[in-house]
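Recall the central idea of this unit: under ordinary conditions, the amino acid sequence of a chain determines the structure it adopts. In this exercise we apply that idea directly, starting from the sequence alone.
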Amino acid sequence: MFEDFLSLVSKPGRYINSEINATHKDLSHVKTKVCLFFPDTYEVGMSHLGLRILYDILNGRDDTACERVFSPWLDYEQRLSSAGRPLRSLESNEPLTKFDIIGITLQYELSYSNILAGLRLAEIPLHTVDRTDNHPIIVAGGPCAVNPEPLSAFIDAFFIGDGEEAVHQIIELRQQHPGRFAYLKALSQSEGFYVPILGKKNVRRRIVRDLESAHYPNKPIVPLMKPIHDRISIEVARGCIRGCRFCQAGVIYRPYRERSPELIKSLVSESLHCTGYDELSLASLSSGDYSDIQPLMQDIAETYHDDRLSLSLPSLRIGTLTSGMIQAIAAVRKTGFTLAPEAGTERLRAVINKPVSDADLMSAARLIFSNGWSVLKLYFMIGLPTETNEDLDGIINLAHKLLTLGRSVSKRHIQINITISTFVPKPHTPFQWFSQATREEIKFKQSYLAQGLRQNGIVLKPHSPEMSLLESAFARGDSRIGPVIEEAVRLGCRFDGWSECFDIAKWEQAFHKYGLTPELYTSRRFEQEEALPWDYVHVGVTKTHLQREYRRALDAKITENCRIQCESCGLGCPEGGSERLGRPSNRIPDSQKTSRVTITRHRDSTEISRRSRIRMKFTKSGRMRFLSHLDLMTLFQRATSRAEIPVAFSQGFNPHPKIAFGPALSVGIESLSEYLDVETTHIVDLLLLKSLLNDTLPEGIRIVQADVIPSKTPSLSGSISRYSYGVQMPEKYWNEIEARVSVFLSNTSVLVANGEGQKNIRQCIEAIEISGDINHPGVSIILVDRERIKPRIQDVVAQLFAVKLEQLHLFGITRTGMFYQSEGCWKNPLEVS
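Accordingly, the structure predicted from this sequence is:
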């Protein structure tokens, strides 16, 4: 992490480390060093549950240290490249070349360019044939590994399957075989591993049969910057009993396995205690299919009612939704509710094996609207096999009916958000033989839907046809795709899953260089008898079963879920098809037991009899100066929860903790004098409060003072209007600083840019004085808000030293005080009565 230019890049919180529950080991004291590389931004990678699990397993070993790295955003990458600096790990800032193993997550095909860009930025040879014993071993796993061909020239070893047990073998074999070739050979002889350089061979997916005993982190990392999914996520089940024919995850994560309610509640208890999160996700491919989902949800909702825990099910099948589940989810806050009909008509839903009737959908929507939701999100897919315009009309008709229903049930403003994705034929699914719709066809379908859904209250969000085209080309690709990816990276392709970065013209140029087109892979319909590029990867489900499902799709025939009827897919599930499929015994394994299995959460009602308003002064220094004000607010909310401070909550539709901050501090500036107010439900010991918070806050944030203030005291943000700063400057300004300050203060106008042109901030500059000593002089600056003008210290320093804003990282700026005016005097915010 290079602090000298962090203030110059967007979202520097991606790179600052220091998260709660992160692991930091002395790399010189371990046998094996692993760096997990997630080829997307920090906020995307830290939302990935698999990364957290592997990180926890590896750091649980005394002989291993595991660190993380994420794809740097374009501005950070550009500065690394310009400075000739390699990509380094997050925890210890170690170059990636110093690690023994780099583990790459293959979560999404459109991250492939980031993988090559990251390896190049890390100064690791892109091609496995060019690496020596001095380079890390590159191991890749994840859902995209089930077709290794496109990346086969760049990855040393692919792992296919569940990684909780295999990750130990990866470490132990590395310690036994320090030589590169010997290690790769040993991996290739182990179940679940494919080493391309040793030639193609049949590889069988590795499966963790008992989810109950599978490792799970009970102290998840709490990111300092808000990730995409900012919550505790507990995997309640793995696999799926349904068998949607387009869904790759439903095939490659079979068989269906569940965790016991007892273990889930234990993990919830410990995770909430050590993170401070107020949102919990019960995760699986279809959370509603969990055997005890309703009593589990109701138990959790009741237990954490006073903590205002928000409960969500990220993947909820329409037919599994019940009134009890809705009420458990609705207990705290309501934003949007998501359902995925996938297709607009019952006929097409039968084709994809998602037997949801229109009546089921309307019934679920009525339940959702009547319980207080005003925004309903719907996911549909276009370009599915056998789709017609009637199926598109089905989407349009459903949207209008749902809008009408919502308005009849609720008095609130109803909004229907419809996301339209494009069908991508994925390997190892019954639909792998179908071709993808052409760009022209998809654009026509999107335009058709846009016209039919043009109504207030309906918002349509279509996915890029070009992105889906590239995703399909990679998903169905062979080894010829590898050079195309390499050329696209050379042309500047990065973050292809981000619309602001995606450039199909560059990809078409890269394909053209090698005499290929994306359509060569996307528009081809495979014959069922022909060999497919990924046939040597065996995921457990037989090709015979997939072919049978393909034929049933053409006949629009439903295949029952595994609990009702076992279809002999090839996995040989014990008790196949019975009601107990995948259910664990009601026990908690010793390895998962925690010291805090239960926490008393309900507070006595007498606690709210005497509320207190507490004002705290804190410092913000070191890497924490790069934390945004919004992320700082979230940090404190979770710190008070971890410290079990009895914070009061607001009333109303969306209750929130009563924590209020002073004026925001710009990213990159340190402070010795920041303030926040906290309202508690009853009187607390101030010394204990300060100690508890400092114990749970990260290094760089420290509470230095806390006092009880009158409840009617004006708010921090509304009363503070005077600020003092200290500025340390580069040595070249030392001899001229007195003259520079004198000339600057003699000006009657100091113009700085704002959104509407320029503004004169001279009247806001109360004083500038020389500070420090003759050997290390600095300046002290006092600024005051005037009418509607709020001066920024960055603008003052830039004008004073005649530098651009991009050069301010050369100056050390610290906020030393904030003040409010009372009876004609300036006072610090703790001087209240």
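The first helix runs from residue 42 to 45.
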